[in-house]
C-alpha cells in the first residue's frame, strides 16, 4: 500500500463564518487572512502528508455554510473519507446548528468515514459561549471525535487533521474502506467514478 499514493477526501461543513476556509489555509499553506471572504459554493485545498511511511494526499472540500447552499453542500458528502462538523466556540448560534450538520454527516456520508466535530476560534477564549464539556458530550453522543482549534494561531490544527488522516489510513488498512477508490484524485476525476465504503458506487453531484 505504501507504493501507491492515496488521496483522502476531507469535507468541512458548518455555519458560515466559523472559520472553515481559514482552517484549510492555515493547515495547507500556513496562511491566515484576517478578512477572509465567505465561501461561495465550494473551495478546494490540498496538502500531502506522511502517514506511517506512506504518502497521503489530503483534499479539503470547504463548503459554504449559508442556507441557500445547503442542498448543494449535501451532495458533497458522497465518497468522503472524513467529515468535519465545525462551529465557533464564541458563537452559540453556530453550535446550535451542529445537530443538523451532524445528521447530514451521519446520513449522507459513507458509513465507515471518520466523523469529527471541531470547535474553532479558541483564540477568542474570553468570548467563549460554548463550554468544552458541553461540546465534547454532544460529539461523544454521536460517536464523533472532538477537537478544539484556532485557525488564527494554528493551535491543534496539525493534531486534528493528521490524527484523522491516520484514523482513515487505519480504516483503509483494515479494508473497511475500498482503498482502490482512494488512489484517485477526486478533484480531477468525476465523482461518479469514486468508490468508497463497502464497494458502493455513489453518483456524481
Automatic annotation (TrEMBL):
Task: State the UniProt keywords alphabetically.
Answer: GTP-binding, Nucleotide-binding
Which InterPro entries does this entry report, sorted A to Z?
Answer: P-loop_NTPase (IPR027417), Rab_GTPases_membrane_traffic (IPR050209), Small_GTP-bd (IPR005225), Small_GTPase (IPR001806)
Q: Name one GO molecular function term.
A: GTPase activity
**Database matches in SUPFAM superfamilies:** P-loop containing nucleoside triphosphate hydrolases
Q: Which SMART domains would you find in this protein's record? A: RAB (SM00175), RAN (SM00176), RAS (SM00173), RHO (SM00174)
Q: Which PANTHER family does the UniProt record give?
A: DRAB11-RELATED (PTHR47979)
Q: Which family does it belong to?
A: Belongs to the small GTPase superfamily. Rab family.
The protein depicted here goes by the name Ras family protein
Q: What is the lineage of its organism?
A: Eukaryota, Metamonada, Parabasalia, Trichomonadida, Trichomonadidae
Amino acid at each position: 500500500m505504501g507504493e501507491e499514493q492515496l488521496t483522502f477526501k476531507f469535507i468541512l461543513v458548518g455555519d458560515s463564518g466559523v472559520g472553515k476556509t481559514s482552517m484549510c489555509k492555515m493547515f495547507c499553506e500556513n496562511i491566515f487572512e484576517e478578512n477572509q471572504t465567505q465561501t461561495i459554493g465550494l473551495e478546494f485545498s490540498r496538502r500531502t502528508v506522511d502517514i506511517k511511511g506512506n504518502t497521503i494526499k489530503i483534499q479539503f472540500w470547504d463548503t459554504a455554510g449559508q442556507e441557500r447552499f445547503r442542498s448543494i453542500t449535501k451532495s458533497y458528502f458522497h465518497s468522503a473519507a472524513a467529515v468535519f462538523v465545525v462551529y465557533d466556540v464564541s458563537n452559540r448560534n453556530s453550535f446550535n446548528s451542529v445537530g443538523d450538520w451532524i445528521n447530514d454527516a451521519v446520513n449522507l456520508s459513507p458509513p465507515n468515514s471518520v466523523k469529527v466535530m471541531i470547535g474553532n476560534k479558541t483564540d477568542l477564549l474570553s468570548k467563549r459561549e460554548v463550554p468544552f464539556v458541553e461540546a465534547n458530550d454532544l460529539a461523544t453522543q454521536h460517536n464523533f471525535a472532538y477537537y478544539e482549534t484556532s485557525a488564527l494561531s494554528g493551535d491543534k490544527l496539525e493534531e486534528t487533521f493528521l490524527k484523522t488522516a491516520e484514523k482513515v489510513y487505519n480504516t483503509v488498512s483494515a479494508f473497511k474502506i475500498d482503498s482502490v477508490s482512494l488512489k484517485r484524485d477526486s478533484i480531477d476525476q468525476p465523482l461518479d467514478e469514486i468508490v468508497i465504503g463497502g464497494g458502493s458506487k455513489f453518483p456524481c453531484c
